[in-house]
Specification:
Chains A, B: Belongs to the ROK (NagC/XylR) family. Chains A, B: Keywords: Kinase, Transferase. Chains A, B: One of its GO terms (molecular function) is kinase activity. 2 copies of one chain form a homodimer. Chain A folds into 2 domains: 241 residues, Nucleotidyltransferase, domain 5 (2-Layer Sandwich); 158 residues, Nucleotidyltransferase, domain 5 (2-Layer Sandwich). Helices cover 39% and strands 19% of the residues of chain A. Chain A has 14 helices and 15 strands. Chains A and B meet through α1, β12, α10 and α12 of A and α1, β12, α10 and α12 of B.
């Protein structure tokens, strides 16, 4: 299997906005570029911000902020204007705003059932979104052509002066091999290459693991803002995790960290598609919930019905939720002992299961991990929902712009003409 | 429980020796200090090095290296001399050597059974070592006074011009609380404070988790040199891990990461002292090996006998080793799916169990983790043995010196006079 090359975002998720460290002997020009990035990152994350706040938050002096803002305005990345309301006497501090309507990235996602493409503006707003079903049994590479079609379709309505700064694709590729085993291919470098080949011009695509990217999104704009040690659990057909430690994503030696769905939690449990037995996935997936509820395990649409029935007091459905929630808490407890995170975030299909069975999950977490590991633990339902992956992918795509704002401006628009 | 404050070593374990990045607007003086640190770190890690090699390895020019070396010589941190053997014609490049005999750190460790104190010279040599038993039932704080006595005893034979640059203490404090549960206190800040209170002068002590520190040692000077994604497993009375991801230690939100001994691997297993059931420790500890071999589980001295008997073909002992090795592989497989490390290192008592049962461990790892996660995995027995913890603690203690060599030189010797 080819080793995937995955983006290691350097700045995404940083909770401090201070200027980046320079290399030894950094020139004034290099320092200026880094400071431009710090200002742009701040308004990207926090929205319209007064020069006064930028001055105090970034530790730069007033005239420097003024000059940096002017450069960013000239590059078409931000606007400056009077504040909407003026509360204090005296001359108001100008407000610097990201040009979300003009500066944007392409964010793509490939999950078990859907292909999605979005244009996301600087500042994190989704400007346009297209979605189609993913035919079952197809690989991530098979998704390249339909995703490219969605992108081209979106590009047709983009204003002529808009600035495309990059693209990113989030995928978790679970494919069944000829030997019957489920292999998790991670995200192969060929995915990004194949996407780029679809377009004759454009800034290209970085790739990332879907759970990693959703974790970043929740850390940058969701329920885990400002938290540095996070386990984000993503439920789709399988279960995977995005783990952030000390503010940085755990990528793994070859990009395969976070395959927590294949931790064995029940040595006497059911066979798993991966060839092992009693994997966490066999106990907490949607299929497990449906099985316990006496439904067809492959009928994903019935998950919502089971959760609703449980909420309405149906005993079979309630017991099914409790059993899955118990195993959910069991596995989280093990992960908490390993990583000692500040927060565990439940996303994808696990969001609803956590919400429905939170008491049962908490009971496990109140007893299983060591007291020291669980003492400050926060459990949270993901906030960004289905958009997390697209918002996170856009953060990856914006990373280069935010590291060196003026250098990306030359990239220009994606060629809207279809390749041969 | 008080939150422990643990050292986050910034430079320890770095596999690149290039000069540190400077802050924006770094002065020539700051850049010089960082370059001094880069040169000193290089000879600390690699031993005597020619100016020519330093020039090429650090990417600095020849005259800069000459000036930096001269500064370090003047500070008494290194010596310069002709190489031992000259192979090429022409003027030989001077060799820069760390002054291991003069510049040293205090390295202390508190494990389940022993208290150890060492003086470790720049370059990583153990210059002096004292060891006494740790009375059972005592806490880490109870170890402060006897450790301080060992330090004072070692200090009596230190040359007058020697330079003490810092100290570090490694501990894993497993104490049984009044409610009968075993709590893992991590390493409380009070431990370092209490040690400092024992001495009226001196550069102080940083604290760290024993498994974390041993992991660093194996990465800097052991079997995992140059490897950035490592799970180091340490067996003592309990089992814990030092996890290094992307070259940096995983500390955890409150410093309690790596409590892998309390992952539940066998939901139907034996009760654990922590209050849970079927923890990994209950299946892979020395006590488990002794239990399966029909020996007294508390007779730690018998572990070596069981391993020897297994090697000699004794069936009961062999089956005991195989059973423990199987559970060892089981838990490692789960960790590999979570972290996707490049290498797993077996240390402490797990070193011998891994060595004796490597085939059984490998069998689990050949089947349980996902193919992508296990594909490039290396399993290794720890190389540094009992000294790993002391060598790692010294690395923590040297960190400040290596970050700013000339600033630590003023610290001077520890006051050899006992406090009242």
């Amino acid at each position: 299997m080819a080793a995937p090359v995955r983006a290691r975002p350097t700045g995404v998720g940083r909770t401090t906005e201070s200027p980046l460290p320079a290399v030894p002997g950094a020139s004034q020009e290099e320092i200026r570029r880094q400071n431009l990035g710090a200002v742009l990152r701040y308004v990207h994350l926090h929205g319209p911000t007064s020069r006064a706040e930028l001055t105090s938050q970034l530790g730069l002096n007033r005239s420097t902020i003024g000059a940096l803002a002017a450069d960013l305005v000239a590059s078409g990345l931000v606007t400056e204007g009077a504040p909407a309301s003026v509360r204090r006497a005296g001359r108001p501090s100008l407000v610097v705003s990201p040009r979300s309507d003009r500066v944007y990235a392409h964010a793509l996602s490939i999950d078990a059932a859907r292909l999605r493409a979005a244009r996301v503006g600087l500042g994190g707003q989704i400007l346009d979104l297209r979605e189609i079903p993913r035919p079952s049994g197809t690989s991530a590479i098979d998704a390249v052509r339909p995703l490219a079609d969605l992108v081209r379709d979106m590009e047709r309505s983009v204003a002529p002066d808009a600035l495309l700064v990059g693209g990113a694709v989030a995928a978790t590729d679970t494919t069944r091999e000829p030997d019957g085993r489920i292999r998790i291919a991670g995200v192969d470098e060929t995915l990004g290459v194949a996407l780029e080949a679809e377009f004759s011009a454009g800034p290209g695509f970085v790739t990332g693991d879907l759970a990693d990217i959703a974790a970043l999104a929740e850390q940058v704009r969701g329920v885990a803002t400002g938290i540095d040690d996070i386990i984000y659990l993503h439920g789709d057909l399988g279960i995977s995790a995005g783990i952030i430690v000390g503010g940085r994503l755990v990528i793994g030696h070859r990009g395969h960290s976070g395959k927590v769905g294949h931790m064995v939690v029940n040595p006497n449990g059911l066979p798993c598609g991966c060839g092992s037995r009693g994997c966490w996935e066999t106990e907490i997936s949607e299929a497990a919930l449906l099985r316990h509820a006496g439904r067809d395990p492959s009928d994903r649409a019935a998950v919502a019905e089971v959760l609703r029935a449980a909420a309405d007091g149906d005993r079979t459905a309630g017991a099914a939720v409790a059993q899955v929630a118990d195993w959910l808490g069991f596995g989280v407890a093990n992960l908490v002992n390993v990583v000692n995170p500040d927060a565990v975030v439940f996303g994808g299909s696990l969001r609803d299961i956590f919400t429905a069975g939170a008491d049962v999950v908490r009971e496990r977490l109140d007893t299983m991990p060591l007291p020291a590991s669980r003492e400050y633990l926060r459990l949270r339902a993901a906030a960004l929902g289905r958009d997390a992956v697209l918002i996170g992918a856009a953060e990856l795509a914006f990373d280069k712009l935010l590291a060196d704002p003026l250098n990306v401006g030359v990239v220009g628009q994606m060629d809207p003409v279809d390749p041969i």
